[in-house]
Amino acid sequence: MAGSREVSEVSVGGVSLIAPRSWTFFPFENLILARTDARLGTLQISLAFREQASRPITHESCLRVALEFANVESSKTFDRQTSGDGARLCGSLTFGSSEHLGGVFYACDDHGLIVAVYRASAPGAETEVVECARILESASISGRV
After folding, report:
1. Are 26 and 34 in contact (CB under 8 A)?
2. How does pLDDT run across 78-126, given as a tens digit for each residue?
3. Among 104, 116, 137, which residue's Cα sits nearest to residue 32?
4. What is the pLDDT of residues 53-74, one digit of tens each?
5. Domains (ranges, CATH) in the chain?
């Protein structure tokens, strides 16, 4: 994770993930809200689209669903990152400005698609965007939701 911050394994709302200890998670039906102690922004993780990745799964199909969930136009994004091929795919895009930075994220494997969006309400959230990407890279659906 970013810097030398301590991390822990978290199981919340049917999702298993690894996150810095400064993050707090609040589960709802098909949705998990999260924020740090600094409260610069909010991460929304959704399981509502878990069956919507086309088979075989591709970065493009996952990204399309993630952008739809986030209500962000792909033309307004930058810094695209992808990892994995075949059985597990992860990706992220950044959007906004230094004053209102955000990110769109996805993780998809045989258990389904997880999409997320982070929106900062204060400047200085660059580290949180990076942490969100790493949180989603570790995320997987842990059982029936």
Report:
1. yes
2. 999 999 977 899 999 999 987 789 999 999 998 899 999 999 988 889 9
3. 116
4. 777 889 999 999 999 999 999 8
5. 7-141 (3.40.1000.10)
